[in-house]
Amino acid sequence: MSNGTRETIGRRRYLQAAGAAAFAASLAGCSGGGGSGGDGGGSGGGTTTSGANASAGNETGTGTSIENPQTRGEYLQVANRFSHDQAPWIFLNRQYSVYGVANTVEWEARRDERIDGYAVVPSGGKETVTITQSQMDSGLDPHDHRETPTDNIVLQAYEGLLSRDAQGEIVPELASEYERIEPGRVRFRIREGPTFHSGDPLTPEDVAFSINRIVDDEVGGLVSPQSDQLAGVTGAEVVDGERAVDVTSDGINPIVFSLFASYCDVMQQSWVQSNDGPYINTHMNGTGPFRLANYQEGVQVVYERAPNYWQDPAPAAGLTIRSADESSTRVNQLLGGETDLAVNVPPQDVNRIRDSGSAGISPAPSTRVLFNAMRHDVEPFSSPEFRRAMNLAIDLDSIVENVLSGFADATGQPTLEGFSGFNPQVDPYPQNVGKAEQLVEESGQAGAQLTLHTPVGRYLKDVEIAQAVANQIDQLSNVSCSVEQREFSALAEEITTGKIEDKPPFYLIGWGNATFDASQTIVPLLASNGELTTFSSERLDSLMNEAGSLPGDQESG
Amino acid sequence: MISPRTLGNLRREFRSSALAKLGVLIVVVVVGVAVLAPMFAPHDPTTQNLDRSQLPPVGFSTTTNSTSTEMVNGSLEVINETNEINATLTYPLGTDSLGRGMLSRVIYGARTSLLVGLLGTILAAVVGVSVGLVAGYYRGRVDDTLMRSADVMLAFPSLVLAIALVGLWGRAAWRVPDPLVVAGITPEMPASFVLPGTVIVVVGLVNWVWFARVARGEALSVREQSYVKAARSVGASNSFIIRRHILPNSATPILVLGTIQVAAIILLESALSFLGFSGTTLSWGFDIARGRDYLASSWWISTVPGIAIVLSVIGINLLGDWLRDALDPGIGGEGGSGGA
Amino acid sequence: MALGRFVLKRALQGIVVVWGVVTVVFGLRFITPGNPISVIAPLDASPETRQAIARELGLNDPLYVQYLDYLLGLLQGDMGYSYISNTQASAQVFARLPATLELAVVATIVAVVISIPLGVLSATRRNEPADYGATLFSLAGISTPNFWLGIMLVLVFAVQLEIFKTSGRGPGFVSALSMLVTQGSAAGLLSWLSYITLPALALGTYFTALITRLTRSGMLDELGSAYVKAVRAKGLPETLVRYKHALRNTLVPVITVLGLQLGTLIGGAVITEAVFDWPGLGTLVITSITARDWPILQGSLVVIGVGFVLINIAVDTLYAYVNPQVVYE
Fold it and tell me: For an engineered disulfide with A508, which of A224, A454, B170, C103 has Cβ 3.0 to 4.6 Å away?
């Protein structure tokens, strides 16, 4: 499947399916608003698309194509347009997930960076599958982590109420039906049949307990770091006399089903309550297609096919997940037949894998966006002109092409294409050095010296991207810029204290958003009271408040 | 401090040994290149040229495939292209993934390695010799306390301790203005040079023990010499005796140990940079780590700085062998912590 | 009897050193910027939650109470719980120990087996091609960073020639051996070799080179010594002179240096493990530093430190046994 020189990835199909309603809404908004966004003032110097020129020249962001937003999707689109114009970040690229897949298995990459062992089909008499990630888990408690590598390890054995198919569309899992009962209350009907690996059947009490364990610090002996993944959810209770669970939220919580499609693994209440933390972190008891066979912390996790799975049994009899933090090691393992599926294949190794004849490449645009945050409360970043100038200084296309070998998409707004709230009228900033220098002069910040903090090895080519960005800013005649490399944990510590003054003024970071919804990027990162915010604007806050009070688009069941 | 007899020994050993000559030659070249880096480097080692990335060294022109993705009619297509990649004399040792010349990077990397090696060794020597002389001269409880703490230090492998300290304390770095650029001789080169501060302090702190051991041994033997006893009997102060009599006597073994330590610390620094625990990106170890991702397509990014390390360390080790053979300091000469 | 007293004295000194190691490891956290709570607590944890975590870990206690708690815990084999995964730190650390020991032991064996004959050869064929070859090899060996050597070995022998595995540990020696014993199959051992050969070479090369140099210079000294000349004059065969008398005396300083260089061996193992993704203490140290997982980092450092002290006592004892006058030092 990988021997051709051109291969097509079903991107259009995805866009139609993932948030189909949202996409339709955004198109509607566009036609309603009339113009295509090319009405800004200084559209002189640019050579690319009109939308970008418009915003580049605008002081106040009047280039919004939706004058009077009505629906949630429209509010989010306006918020994205506003974010583009205000340029709180240097908008960089959408990361791709590029996997190497041995010919001995069949598997297609997903959009949400998850690897579901259930979907890996071994062929040619092969019984077991080995997956090499970049990192191992941080313990097996499904409610006590927030990173993709751990997610991938727990999701083989644990399941949620809802899930997503490979295209990102919400599908039922442990819940057979779901509906909104009233603005702040939704109901999940719990499927009959699933059993935990301990042999006990799944009950609605287990589901309610699992939700409360995440959102309520007093339940389940754990302060879960996932409470904001179920943002707005206040609690869950079993519906009397029915095999159903009601989930209550603060306000209308438009994205509640989206959240449950990505998060909240269901655990067994009695199992959690009769075991302590270290035990739960080294054992598994879910309802999923695989059960834990052997756990070597930090080294590997071995699973076997769960015998009484409520759906068709998993195609692979056994599954092993290992890790190698060096991309070259993962590729070597794949080509050496030591693993069947390697995550995060770097662009420069793609051809080597294709040419090997023993493995192929499976890429997918991820839900992660890379950007350089600029703190709005310190000079020179307090000036919107200066921030726009930084965006205009960057040759994003060259970075995408040369640093990332094309395995990335340029972005121009916080929200990624295909997400609810994405504004198709907004294009990435084009490079315009003259305009950038002029804006720097206008901002009164000429001569600024910048230091860009970047994590090392956390994201695909993070250091290279940061160095390219700093280099291009440095090329401006009136700004100088250098890179400071940071240990990710140290940088993350400064970013996550909740206080803006603890953050570096200028840093590169990536943000994954598995809910496929704009609010889960804009609210935490750009709203005034966002957990990780570097920006503050009454207009953006009010747009997001409006959006938060309207029902979402994916409400079916 | 250096007697004519010592000089004679050095000269005789140098004349008779081809390896000594080779060692001195390598060290002179490496030091010269490091000091005059802005003049030798053909390009600014930090300037990127994304259009000329991953060029092979001269003599290794190749054909490679490149991959890109493009949106065609709303669907994403992956396109393979076959490209001739020709080496160019502009970049004799090729370029890295961001189009920076490997030759320039190797030349500037020599600065980092030598500066960290020298400054780290000096720091280790100052701390270690002070501790060792005091311990050996006063003996008794002072000796026990200091030497037990040296044992504690030894119980942490220097690389492990260095990783822990740099990783935990952060990677502070100082920007030092480059005199050649400030003087206007090479204005196109970077105006300042990054000195990895934490790394220098840490490699010094984890390696002082070797100096302490040697200095203590010297102090132990010298303090029993008749002239020291005489000095003490006429009322010379302890610090005077240590400075005037014991320190000069320890100079030879410390010099030899110091030479070996420079080599060991260069290896240690490259290991720290390789693991990402450094404060500068202009380092051989750092380039090896970056190039590791490109081994299959652009082997030279890792290979060139590796060869630079091996050659420089060989040179310094040969210099150390020469000094040891000529000066015969009686320390066996294999103290130190290399092998990183 | 004298030897017994010597060992006792060294053991007491060792206990003092171990106490120092533990104290340094404990103190490391307090000279490091950053608060452990931010590692454990979720990003959006309330101040009350943070306080509760601090209380649970005893971070609010006076320093000496925390210190005594840590010492008492260690005495009972309790290294605390991982900040990241909340599992027992001691379990994780001891699970990794065998892999590191295996690598270090194999590398040492490789080094000794190659280097001593090579050093003897070099000394007895002085200024012949064999000597030059050995000298050149040993010079390059002590000057090559082992991580770079490892990368190059992988490139050539694993990626290009596909003889050995690129990374990982495979079954481990014990299970490979038990496979041989219980099933009579050598497949396990072969698989074990395919994993361990390259890392052992990468780690062992520096020591091979070092011991070759030591053996060569020691042999040269001994062959020119009055003692060997006397033995030779008695008409003993040259082979006997060389291998029985000269070599034996040469080995004494070799053992000492090996003991001293043990730290280098373990340090080298750390970076070799990083290159080969060898699941040992070294990779554990690096990941725990990156993640600021203090209990794991402290536990690993204590185990490395104690191991180093124990082996040093063993080396000293061996040295005293071979060379009795040190006892009366």
Answer: A454
Q: Are residues A180 and A326 in the same domain?
A: no
Which of B19, B113, B146, B160 would you mutate first to test chain C, the one with the most C CBs within 10 A? B160
Interface residues of chain B, partner chain A, Cβ below 8 Å: 46-48, 50-51, 53-54, 64-71, 74-80, 97-99, 167, 170-171, 276, 281, 290, 292-298
Its domain, for residue B217, covers 4-55+93-339
Residues of A in contact with C47 (CB under 8 A): none
| CATH number of A174's domain | 3.90.76.10
Amino acid at A101: V
Q: How far apart are CA A124 and CA B100, in angstroms?
A: 46
Instruction: Tell me, yes or no, whether B71 and B147 share the same domain.
Output: no
What distance in Å separates residue B90's CA from the closest CA in chain C? Answer: 27
Q: Which amino acid is at A519?
A: S
- Rounded to an integer, what distance in angstroms lies between the CA atom of residue A197 and that of residue A267? 10
**C89-328 belongs to CATH 3.10.450.50:** no
Q: How far is C307 from chain A (nearest CA, A)?
A: 22
Can you tell me the distance from the alpha carbon of C238 to that of C240, in angstroms, rounded to the nearest whole number? 5
pLDDT digits (tens, 9 = 90+) for B222-235: 887 888 888 888 88
Residues A249 and A349 in one domain: no
Same structural domain, B78 and B214: no
Residues with Cβ < 8 Å from A477, sequence gap 6 or more? A437
**A190 — pLDDT class (breaks 50, 70, 90):** very high
Q: How many CB pairs under 8 A join A and C?
A: 101
Please indicate, yes or no, if residue A1 is contained in any of the structural domains. Answer: no
pTM above 0.90, yes or no: no
User: How far is residue A372's CA from residue A390's CA, in Å, rounded to a whole number?
Assistant: 10
Give the distance from residue A326's alpha carbon to the nearest chain C alpha carbon, in angstroms. 8
Statement to judge: residues A207 and A269 lie in one domain: yes
% of chain A with per-residue pLDDT over 70: 87
- pLDDT tens sequence across C74-132: 999 889 888 888 888 999 999 999 999 999 989 988 898 999 889 988 888 888 888 88
Higher model confidence: residue A211 or residue C321?
A211
pLDDT > 90: percent of chain A: 50
Question: What ipTM, to 2 d.p.?
Answer: 0.86
Tell me which residue range forms the domain holding A73: 12-95+365-548
Cα separation, A152 vs B53, in Å, equals: 35
Chain C residues touching residue B164 (CB < 8 angstroms) = 28, 285, 289, 297, 301
Domain ranges of chain C: 89-328
Residues A38 and A174 in one domain: no
pLDDT at C326: 52
| Angle between helices B158-169 and C294-322 in degrees, nearest 10 | 160
